[in-house]
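Reopening this ticket.

The earlier resolution said the output was attached, but the attachment link was broken on my side. Pasting everything inline this time so it's all in one place.
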Amino acid sequence: MNLYTFVVLTALVAGLALQLWLLSRQASHVRRHRDVVPEAFRSRIPLESHQRAADYTVAKTHLRQFEEVLGALLLLFWTIGGGLNAVDHFLGAILPSPRWAGVAFVVSTIFFMSLLDLPLSVYRTFFLEERFGFNRVTPKIFVTDTIKQTLLLSLIGVPLVWVVLWLMDSAGPVWWIYVWGTWMGFGLLMTWAYPAFIAPLFNQFTPLADEALRVRVVALIERCGFRTDGVYVMDSSRRSGHGNAYFMGLGTQKRIVLFDTLLESLSHAQVEAVLAHELGHFRCHHVFKRWIILATVSLTGLAGLGYVIQQPAFYVGLGIDTPSSHAALVLFLLVAPLFSVLVQPLLARALRAHEFEADDFACRTIDEPAALREALLCLYRENASTLTPDPLHSAFYDSHPSAPIRIARISTSNGS
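Inline output:
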């Protein structure tokens, strides 16, 4: 066991123990509060809905615990267990080009990992979501989506991996800066292309047909100074009963998207409030701020990869006997998440602050600030979101404030 083996094993065991403990706290806390609706919600959330949300949260938490343990075991198999090394040797023997052998290694590793995750995806969709009435995916849609995702991975991922490996081998000691620039540029390209070219492969997007709501939404957009190529309704009900709204895209391809399930649940004023919250992220520059965070984290990570790629002990310690750029890239992608636990609470706190700012913007922008609170209460009920999360688990993981804190803040700030 060398230093890299020790560091990775320590991070794996410590991180897994912490996550299982936090998940256990979450399940226990939600179960303890299952039979009593918090006082602030009793007039709007029936006990039956509260109990359903508690059971849904506990079921998802138990699945997360299983996923964390399975993920740790698979990581050990791929690295110290020699799984990656066996794949590397096999592909190197059958493919004459080292570059294409490297591309095949990266892509096939991702494919195998996705394949191993497939049973969990089936369980999550057809058992857990089905049990609580959210799943509307048919086996045909599930298979079709899986095939489409695989083809997209091949069409988009293979050229990107080829470019990254070429830069790693050809761009000199500071290759990681060029890779970072390529990765960020690719991310911006996908952000621009996703609304018009990728999302329609999986869902139908139709212009908002409700004229009264459309007039209201257009007026809101103009007040916010948001430029968009349209407001669309997505047929999310084909796959899920959850409701949501968001904006996506870049430049001329920005679209505002409303789930059809959202329109079924909320009044016009409440839809406007939810949309104003989403536009608040735009006006408060949250997308740009999050992009800066992503850029900083990815640059730091690639700089770290630029160091360890030159260390033979890095490969030996993680089960690879032949150093290569493609092996270093995959190893780093596998082990880097182990250390994200160090920044996870800070990131979650920053994201929750963004949600508060977007709520404040929405309440200042719409004529009926109380509509945001009513919309959130409806979404909590319809989406079976727990009203009683464990505070420590929430502080560590949640990108959105817990329901009691968020609703109380909105009510206080608007005197309602």
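Reporter confirms the inline version is readable. The radius of gyration is 23 Å. The longest strand covers residues 255-259.
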